[in-house]
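Entry 14. Structure prediction run on the chain below.
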Amino acid sequence: MFPQLLWASFAIAAAAYLLLFLMRVNVSLRLVRLGWLAEAALVSRGLALTVWSLANWESTPLVACVVVAAAAFYWHRTWLVRARADEFCERTSEACRALRLECRHQPGGLALVERQQTLLLGITPLNTLLLVRLPNPPPRSKVALLVQWLAKQYSGPVPPIPIDLSRRS
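Output returned:
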């Protein structure tokens, strides 16, 4: 009974994450977060092996979790963004202007130029989604600040909980 509950709970969590992604706008689906969920399922089942042995049917979820975890960590700089391409490019260009970072539109994305180094922010439109490939910027660079800004502008599907610390009770 426990293995079924374990796999069902992780499947429900992944489905809820994907459903929230489809319901919200200006949100990003980061494959790494699904990878962490898959890895948590693998570790939980590994710990439960001391009590419950593997059933024949568990090979499919185990293989699926290994594939998702491996793919997520391989493509950790790839996001699915639910936004319009022109709006995404315009907001990113405005952020580049604010950072005084040179940004050139080119086929396949935006070229970000800093200190004679060009990094590509890949953007591929997929109907209502964007496949965004983030560059691997050097630390303490304007491109790194832009990537951090994008992570805040296009947060994950789970809405943040607002906390007002200024109110007195």
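Residues 2-76 form one domain.
Filed with the rest of this week's runs.
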